[in-house]
Amino acid sequence: MVDCTFYLGEDTKGKQEYVKEHIPTAIYFHLDEDLSGEIGLHGGRHPLPDFERLKDKLENIGISNDTKVVAYDRQKGAMASRFWWLLTYLGHEKVYVLNGGFQKWQEEKLPMASGMESPQYYKGNLNVQVRDDMLVSMEDVKNKLLDVRNGSITLIDSREPARYKGEVEPIDKIAGHIPGAINEFWIYATTDSGWKEVSALGEHFSHLDKSNETIVYCGSGVTACPNVLALKTAGFTNVKLYAGSWSDWISYNDNPIEKA
């Protein structure tokens, strides 16, 4: 079990809530410290982590390729989906997101623990097999803009509509979206109790072409991950993450920007 609770702008709050109460045996993974790398000129606000360092932490809590791993959070699966994507990208095939997250566990009055967990497991052995087909770079997206325009590639912006339209931008320096992107706010793939059922997700994305290459981004590559998970659950097979996302895109002065 992995607790990924994290609040943007309050980087200690998630860990504090974990220490106060969490699912028994769950190990805490911090978005900035464990699931992201160092911020540079390019790469966005949450660059991909150093994978050797991440591999060491995963092995140190007992994760091998055959270990079933369940991630959860208190943000409707947004942060847990980042963990799911990273582990899947490293070639792990038994990683899941807990439907309903911590809130559902609480509602069911299931056992709780507190404090920091000290894993007593044997050290895992994670054989990394990176899945390059899950990831695209800024250059990839830029080179595919014509295909996005003509409809042969689907580019999805996972942020809330006002940010997609460029009406507001509370986090990044520049407002707007990547030209040709359509808006699919990630929260709409969920309900008050968890993820939409598979059939409902199919209906939710029914206007999209499953045969297309589908590229998903958000502000910094975090809340794009629940959309990636939802699309895969709905039967889309060629889904890729632009990890740097909008915050990386606007770090290049010559990249085009669209509003409304």
- Helical content stands at 25-40%
Instruction: Assess the beta-strand content as a share of residues.
Output: 5-15%
CATH overall fold name of the largest domain: Oxidized Rhodanese, domain 1
| Biggest pleated sheet | 5 strands, parallel
Overall radius of gyration: 18 Å
Distance between the termini: 41 Å
User: Strand-and-helix sequence, N→C?
Assistant: EHEHEHEHEHHEHEEEHEHEH
CATH architecture descriptor of the largest domain: 3-Layer(aba) Sandwich
- Highest CATH level, the class of the largest domain: Alpha Beta
Shape: globular
Give the neighbour order of strands across the main sheet. 5-11-10-6-7
Strand-pairing-aware structural class: alpha/beta
Instruction: Work out the count of structural domains.
Output: 2
Number of strands: 11
Query: Low-confidence stretches at least 5 residues in length (pLDDT < 50)?
Result: none
